[in-house]
Specification:
This protein is mainly α and 141 residues long. Helix content is 62%, strand content 0%.
Amino acid sequence: MVFAEMMRQQRTYDEVESASGFRRASLKGWRNKNAPGLDSLEAVLNSLGFHLIAVPAHVEMLPPSVAAKAAELAALAKIELGEVWSAAVQIAALQLASTAEGERILAELDAERAAANDNKRHYRRKSKPANDNAKQATTAA
């Protein structure tokens, strides 16, 4: 999901590294060989505008009052209980993303991207030689 979202947002490894504080090389390692820890996965997802949310695998894990309401919604909508939970998480995520804090975070990410892609030519300054033997030879003669 991380790489698909990076591609969708057109974010580079460098942008994600600066926004998340997680090293670019480690992030690239996730593609083939390394598995991320929860803290690093959460940092990278946060930098992409997502939150890592724990979702119960079984309805028995929910408090009885919540499980009863979810079962009631599933019966009314004629859908599976997992779909009810998925919809509830999506609604909560949309509400969170529409808050002022969510807007601020997205604005910061856009500003970082704009600054990184300023399309200005950056020239390397010519350095002075450490020891100019040619000048010394002419002044000595």
